[in-house]
Design brief:
This protein is mainly alpha-helical. 32% of the residues lie in helices and 4% in strands. The longest helix is centred in the N-terminal third of the chain and has 24 residues, at 8-31.
Amino acid sequence: KVGNAHDQVGAAFQTIAAAEHVLRFIRQSKEEGKPFYVNFWLHETHHLVAATDEQKAPYPDTPEPQRTYYSAVTRADAQIGRALDLLDELGLADNTLVFFSSDNGPENSHPNPGQKFYYSVGDTGGLRGRKRSLYLGGVNVPFLVRWPGHVPAGRVDKTSVLAGVDVLPTVLAAVGISAPEGYRSDGLNVLDALEGKPFIREAPLFWEWRGPN
């Protein structure tokens, strides 16, 4: 047990614990000769941003709250790196499609007099709005893809409009599996965009605005 998302200790260790499950599952799938799909959800920077003194040690001269924020991001990066390294170790990297993304912009401010952990440390890079906003600061998020031999490494696409609902139909297309009968996705197969081919979105995207709080 590593606590929960609203607990400082839990926030500092839950991704490390989750990574252990991910690594075991990938190894087991490899040993059994089975294809696999993994959703590796990371809580760092999503809500409570916390780090132990040991995790903050690499940033001794960085002021708070950035020191805790950088430490949390570094912790998440290390666990993602463990999963990617395992794919290399098992010879699976070239045959594995990896997505990295986020769900929304940084959280709105919350009071935190004790400064043991933080909220809303993230930056939108100058974009208007944050989480719960329909401006770009709320809905424009990173979307990184790795698939050697299919997705050009280092390519930056600033024109294609993609969304989280596109992941499932894209994965189904990549592995050659049809969707269940009667299933209708809100998303599109965006393999063309990922592979650097011309892509024009033909279906609308919708966001729901639930108010400033």
